[in-house]
Amino acid sequence: MPGKYTLEIITPERIFFHGEVESVIIPTPDGYMSIQKMHEPMVSAISVGDMKLYTDGEWRECTTSAGFVEVRPDETIIFSQAVEWPEEIDIKRAQEARERAEERLRQKKSYQEYMQNQIALARAMVRLRVGRRNRNMD
Q1: How far is C-alpha 55 from the geometric centre of its chain's CA atoms?
Q2: Could you list the residue range(s) of the whole structural domain that residue 63 is in?
Q3: What is the pLDDT of residues 40-80, one digit of tens each?
Q4: Could you give the C-alpha distances from 61 to 8, 23, 38, 87, 96, in angstroms and in order?
Q5: Which are the contacts of 9, defined by CB distance < 8 A and separation ≥ 6?
Q6: Which residues have C-beta within 8 Å of that of residue 67, sequence separation ≥ 6?
Q7: CATH number of the domain where residue 97 is located
Q8: In angstroms, rounded to a whole number, what is the distance separating the alpha carbons of residues 123 and 69?
Q9: How many domains does the chain have?
Q10: 55: number of Cβ within 10 Å
Q11: N-terminal to C-terminal alpha carbon distance within the chain
Q12: Are residues 74 and 36 in the same domain?
């Protein structure tokens, strides 16, 4: 790895993470992107998915919802609607959210409502996958 840089992950409710990392892997509309120190400056959208941070010699996984990332040579800032560590995920609540989103998708709604329900379903599925995987439930 090229070295450490500062990563800050911000949600509307809190500063989720602020510290030194060697790498972060984020979900984008075009697939997963890895960011290391001295990455080319850029701004990109973030998709619903799992995000991985390499810090202190280990990978840490969390979930993220839609947002964007600003990459600078020695610093990266991620802005997301919601980010959670696996231990913060309420599996039962995520399962209920998945069921609600699936039911709403079965109903004939407008295109906008359909897209909102697709996002809600994707977020619930990611939360379930990450939460269960990190609790050895799969």
Answers
A1: 17
A2: 5-84
A3: 999 999 999 999 999 989 999 999 988 999 999 889 999 99
A4: 15, 12, 22, 10, 22
A5: 15, 16, 17, 18, 77, 78, 80, 83
A6: 45, 46, 78, 79, 80, 81
A7: 1.20.5.440
A8: 18
A9: 2
A10: 16
A11: 31
A12: yes
Closest CA to 24 of 39, 42, 43, 45: 39
How far is residue 8's CA from residue 74's CA, in Å, rounded to a whole number? 12
Q: What span, in angstroms and rounded, lies between the C-alpha atoms of 71 and 28?
A: 13
8, two tokens = 């800050």
pLDDT (tens digit, 9 = 90+) per residue, 8-26? 999 999 999 999 999 999 9
Q: What is the three-class DSSP state of 120? A: helix
- Domain match, 24 and 67 both: yes
Q: To which residue do tokens 């990190």 refer?
A: 134
Q: For the chain, what's the residue count?
A: 138
| CA–CA dist 24, 21 (Å, integer) | 7
Residues 6+ apart with CB under 8 A from 21: 4, 5, 7, 53, 54, 55
